[in-house]
Amino acid sequence: MKLAVLVDNSTFIDRYFLGEPALSFFIEEGDKHILFDTGYSDIFIKNAEKMRINLRELDFIALSHGHVDHTWGLTHLIRLHMEAKNEGIIHKTPTIIGHPLVFESKIFDTVGEIGSILSHEKLNRHFPIYFSKEPLWLTDRLVFLGEIKRVFDFEGKDSIGKIVTNQGEFEDFVQDDTALVYKSSEGLVIIVGCAHSGICNIIEYAKEVCKEKRVVDVIGGFHLLNPEKQQLEKTVQYINELKPDHLHACHCTDFPSKVALSKVANIKEVGVGLKLEYF
Questions:
Q1: Contact yes or no for 245/218 (Cβ under 8 A)
Q2: 0.90 cut: is pTM over it?
Q3: Are 163 and 186 in contact (CB under 8 A)?
Q4: Cα-flanking dihedrals φ and ψ of residue 257, to 5°?
């Protein structure tokens, strides 16, 4: 599997890409091309062009959850594909994969709408959409986890605003938060968006779904932004016992949390332009 970072808060020095507080990864697994999240704006397309990545040839768009910094780029992807149709440019029509709640409205008091800018109905006119709470294998070795089991009492407990569904308005515990997992020859590579469901919960569920205890890498946002002392301590303890080969913590992982994790794990730098390969 090959993974390229199209959007992150940071960019590499002397690599002239664009960054924003958001996330998007491009993944190649076998003959499948997968976009994991779309960031906040159109910079994932601009960065992909500089990296010679063709986003007109996607098979899947997997969404980690419905927040603005992971889904608002979808409007620009629609334009890219619509223009390809108009100009007769070769392209595929990717299937969007997500949790059933991923396109529901999400409201935060001081901001307003922080969920997807597109409704399921409008987006479905451009791309087919497949919802799943259960694990869904996109290839023989790459799985979309669906709804994450929350087993640890120190994470995944906080609500972020409200979610509005046909049943009413409720506290949003971001049940749509999920991840991708690749089964490499050396163990699991776990690809996360913001880990609202808890980074340790995600890793445990990945191990259960894939029937594999070894973890090679975890890349993405760990949702450790000024975390409570207990959460950080318990997370560090868990990672220490897990003993992954390395971690690519980025996006919503603050510097003090990276420093704490670096005491028990090999923390790698992440930025737009990074390319990784796993076998």
A1: no
A2: yes
A3: no
A4: -70, -40
